[in-house]
Amino acid sequence: xxxxxxxxxxxxxxxxxxxxxxxxxxxxxxxxxxxxxxxxxxxxxxxxxxxxxxxxxxxxxxxxxxxxxxxxxxxxxxxxxxxxxxxxxxxxxxxxxxxxxxxxxxxxxxxxxxxxxxxxxxxxxxxxxxxxxxxxxxxxxxxxxxxxxxxxxxxxxxxxxxxxxxxxxxxxxxxxxxxxxxxxxxxxxxxxxxxxxxxxxxxxxxxxxxxxxxxxxxxxxxxxxxxxxxxxxxxxxxxxxxxxxxxxxxxxxxxxxxxxxxxxxxxxxxxxxxxxxxxxxxxxxxxxxxxxxxxxxxxxxxxxxxxxxxxxxxxxxxxxxxxxxxxxxxxxxxxxxxxxxxxxxxxxxxxxxxxxxxxxx
Length: 361
Fold this sequence. Notes:
The protein is of the alpha/beta class. It folds into two domains: 1-112 and 306-361, 3-Layer(aba) Sandwich (Rossmann fold), CATH 3.40.50.300; 120-302, Glutathione S-transferase Yfyf (Class Pi), Chain A, domain 2. Helix content is 45%, strand content 24%. It has helices spanning 36-48, 104-107, 122-125, 128-142, 144-164, 169-212, 231-244, 246-252, 273-276, 279-301, 318-327, 340-344; strands at residues 2-11, 14-20, 25-29, 67-76, 79-88, 92-96, 99-101, 113-116, 219-223, 264-268, 271-272, 306-310, 333-337, 350-355, 358-360. Strands 2-1-4-5-6-7 form a six-stranded antiparallel sheet. A hairpin with a 3-residue loop joins strand 5 (79-88) and strand 6. Helix 4 (128-142) crosses helix 5 (144-164), helix 6 (169-212) packs across helix 7 (231-244) and helix 6 crosses helix 10 (279-301).
C-alpha cells in the first residue's frame, strides 16, 4: 500500500496543505512544534479512526475554525481508495471513496499504518492498558470481526458496570447473568483473535529484535492468562469467571474479569521487560514489536502498511539507526526529524520541510 497524497484543512495547526508522498522514505523535517507530528497523526487517524494523542476529536480542529477535514488517496492491491474524515465540535463524518459510512468498522482497515514514536516506550514500561491498546488498534485494522466484537463488548461492559453501581442489590444479582451471557460471546471472539495474532507476532518480534541487537538479546511474548482452544469453551470458562466474581464486582462497582483486564507478558532474555529492562532495551523491544506488526500486515492484508516513525532516530544509537534504515528499505515510511542530515546518512528520500503548519519549498 502506498499513500499518494494527504490533504489537511483546519487540522491542528494546518490551515490548508496537501502532502505528496513517494513510495519509499518520506522525511518531514523542521524545527520542533511546527506540525510534523500533526501530519503523521492525520495519517494514523485515517487508518484507525482515532488519534494517539487526544481523547476528543474536537481537539483536532484548528483554533478559531468550526471544523477540520483530513483526506488521503492511497494505492492498494485492490486499486485506489480515498478516505476522508470531517470533524466537527460534537460529531464527525467518515467517507470511503466518497460514500459516507456510519460504522467505524467500515472505515478502519482501508488504509493500514504502523506508528512508532519515543512515547511507545509505554508499550513496554507502563501497565496493561497500553499493550491492550496496541493489540486492539493493530488487530482492528486487519479484522472487521474483531473491530465489531470489540465495540460491542465495550458497549455491554459499560452497561454492566453501570448496573453494578445500582443500589438495588437483589435486582443487580438477578440481572447480571443476562449481561454475562452477552459479554462472554464477544469476549471469546476478542480472546480468539488476540491469541491468533500473538502467535504470529511473537516469532516476528523475536526475529526483528535479534536483527536490531545483532543476536545479543532474545525477546519473547506470551499471553498473560490461559484460555481453552475452542471459542465455545472460552465462553463457558468466562461465564464461570463472571459468576464467581459477582460479589467482588458488586463491592468494587466494576467488572473485574475479562479480556479488558488481560495483558501480554514481554520478556528479554527471560526477565520481565517491564521490571528489569533499561530505557535502551525498552526502546528496541517496542520498535521490534512495531516492525513485527508491519510483517503481519504484509501477511494478513497482502500488502505492507505505511510505517510512521515520529522523532525516532534521535532516540537510537548509530548502529540501530543504520539497522532500521536497512530494515525499512522496501516500505513506504513517513519519518519526522529536526535535522535530516544527522540521522539519514545519505539515504534516498523525499524531504518535506514544514514551518508553522505550512510546507516550505
